[in-house]
Request: fold
Amino acid sequence: AKVFKMPARCPVCASRVYREEGEAVTRCTGGLVCGAQRKQALLHFASRRALDVEGLGDKIVDQLVDSGLVHAPADLFRLDVDTIAGLDRMAGKSAANLVAALAKARSTTLERFIYALGIRHVGESTARDLARHFGRLEPIVSASEEELLQVPDVGPVVAASIARFFAEAHNREGIGQLRAAGV
Reply:
C-alpha cells in the first residue's frame, strides 16, 4: 500500500491544516471561508446565541450555499428580498422578514460577534471574557498568544487557537467584509 502523508493545506480551500498535541484529528484553519465547513459555519454564525438571525435555518442556508449566492457570512448581508423570495418555499413576506432579521443582526455586541466567528475553543464565556478584557475587536485580532493569556480563563490551548484563527489572512479578510457590510 502507498504510504499516506497528511497534506499541509486543506484540499478544499488551501488553508493551513494543524493537529493539536495529543489529538488524532487534523483540522483545516479555513473557518469562515472553507467550502467544506461553510454551511455549518453559517448556521453557527446566525444561531440564536451568536447573531440571532431569525428565519435563517438549515434549508435556507443549504439553498443559499448550493446556489452560489452565499460563500461567506458577509454575503448574507448583501441579500435582498427579491433574491431570497426566489428560493424554494420562500414568499415575499418570509423574504422580507429574513432581510429585516439580517438588518437587525448588524447591530450586535462584541462578545456575540466573537462567538459567531466560530473560533475553535471559544464559547460564549470566552467570547465574553475577550470582549471585556480588550473592549474592541482590533486588539483581539492583533493580540499575541502572550497577550491572550492575560485574559481570565484563557489558557495556552485557547490562546493558541485564537491566535491561529486571526493569523489566517482569509479570516481577517472575512471580518473586514463583515465590517464593510455594516456588522
